[in-house]
Amino acid sequence: MIATNLKIKDGVLEFAGFSTPALARKYGTPLYLMDEQRIRDNCRMYQKAMTEFFGEKALTLYASKALCFKRMYEIVSDEGLGIDVVSSGEVHTAAKAGFPMEKAFFHGNNKTDEDIAFAMDRGVGYFVVDNVEELYAIEHIAERKGVTQKCLLRVTPGIDPHTYDAVATGKVDSKFGVPIETGQAEEFYNYAAALPHLEIVGLHCHVGSMVFDEDVYERTAQIMLEFMAKLHDKYGFVTQFLDLGGGYGVRYRESEGVVDIAYRISALADFMKELAAQLNIPFPAVLLEPGRSIVADAGLTMYTVGSVKRIKGYKNYVSVDGGMTDNPRYALYRSQYTVFAPERMEAPPTLHCDVVGRCCESDDIIQPDVWLPELRRGDLLAVCTTGAYNYAMASHYNRIPNAPIVMLSSKGASVAVKRETLDQMIKNDA
Fold first, then answer.
1. Is the pLDDT confidence value at 103 over 70?
2. So what's the pLDDT on residue 176?
3. For the segment 347-371, what is each residue's pLDDT rounded down to a tens digit?
């Protein structure tokens, strides 16, 4: 199976030890299922590797954008991780969940004055500053509030991570950060260092998502450490924190490889320590920001088949009761998924089809070119590895309400996010 939390018992798909058809019958579809133990195991793997290889000051930050709701922050807090947040909405959700906000890092390329003030009022520990205009905005608001705000400066190392362009963020011409290559990052530091209400404690970069190439982080770290050495030698600046962002890839299909993340962290630490020694600079506290690789394989989505359309000589379509409203990733990125008929796991796959959604949109596709057993209206489908960027990117297109999230643990199944009702969907209509 594509993941160890998937099993077949008596021809039925189990996820995290639960019968997926039984859960679909109890909670309805579309339905997001989340494996709490898998989330915890992934958090522990990261933090163990980070502290073992980078030292006790190293910290894993959960990237909230991958999946954000109150229970996620409770779990992440239990496991001792920090978080990165990118909006007032994520800040608010984390604070309401009781997350220790001094371990929150506020990202984003266009923080409004309202966002900045809101985050400061809730005790967000660190701002990751994207640009010069934002520097001055944070300075003015910090002065007004009578605080000194800890900040990291986001710079772009000019790395091509060989991922899909829409999820590559570390190139020179990215909308994020200030480029090192053009000399602007050095100017950025000088502007920041002169501001009395900002404490510049480190540097941040992020090269992109779904990184499988072994040398991407090493290439990034080399550029960042050399830039740190330049600031150290020229201005006496000691980088306390170096945040290398997130982006390790995950396995969506059997044919894809598996990243040994702990091994990669070990190799990266060896590389960075040797280079820092050569450059004669203090070794910083290293941060990583995984999101996808913490929650992706902890998620599975259940659907009910509405129709099986057979166009003779052309194609077959299996339509489900969800679609791009609960998973827009195929429409956006042509993302690959594994699809099962969870009640017929041992039946022969004789139906070649595209699994499509219910939206009035031709590109509302969950996954094309899938082989499944023969299906009919009312049968169930399960789509695997949907924990990241599915619920997080859900929409109300065609006025379809959001699906619920059910958390699975040793204590049983519990609703973590309720199914949205039609009345809740229109509550803000005037």
1. yes
2. 80
3. 999 999 999 999 999 999 999 999 9
Phi, psi of 326 (to 5 degrees): -105, -15
**Whole-Å CA distances, 19 to 10, 28, 269, 303, 371:** 10, 14, 41, 14, 22
401 vs 159, which has greater pLDDT?
401
Q: Give residue 208's pLDDT band: very low, low, confident or very high (50, 70, 90).
A: confident
Task: Give this prediction's pTM.
Answer: 0.94
Dump pLDDT digits (tens) for 145-190.
Answer: 999 999 999 999 987 645 444 444 445 556 789 999 999 999 999 9
Calpha distance 103→81 (Å, rounded): 8
* Angle between helices 216-235 and 261-279 in degrees, nearest 10: 30
Q: Which residues contact 73 (CB under 8 A, 6 or more apart)?
A: 64, 83, 93, 94, 97, 98, 99
- pLDDT at 169 (0 to 100): 46
Query: Which one-letter DSSP state was computed for residue 255?
Result: T
Please tell me which residue in 43, 68, 360, 384 is annotated as part of the active site: 360
Q: How far is CA 362 from CA 15, 269, 299, 358, in A?
A: 31, 47, 26, 10
C-alpha to C-alpha distance for 264 and 183, rounded to whole angstroms: 30
Distance, CA of 69 to CA of 307 (rounded, Å): 32
Report d(CA 78, CA 44) in Å as an integer: 10
Q: What is the residue type of 219?
A: R
Give the DSSP per-residue string, 267-278. HHHHHHHHHHHH
CB 224 within 8 A of CB 170: no
DSSP 109-169: S---HHHHHHHHHTT--EEEE-SHHHHHHHHHHHHHHT--EEEEEEEE-----SS-GGGB-
- Report residue 342 as tokens: 């969870």
Task: Return the bridge partners of 7, or none.
Answer: 14
Burial annotation 283-306 (CB, 10 A radius, 16+ → b, else e): bbbbbbbbbbbbbbbbbbbbbbbb
Integer angstrom CA distances of residue 400 from 69, 257, 408: 20, 35, 25
H helices within 301-373, ranges in order? 329-333
How is residue 405 annotated by DSSP? E
353 is annotated as an active-site residue = no
Over the stretch 190-205, which tens digit does the pLDDT of each residue have?
A: 999 999 999 999 999 9
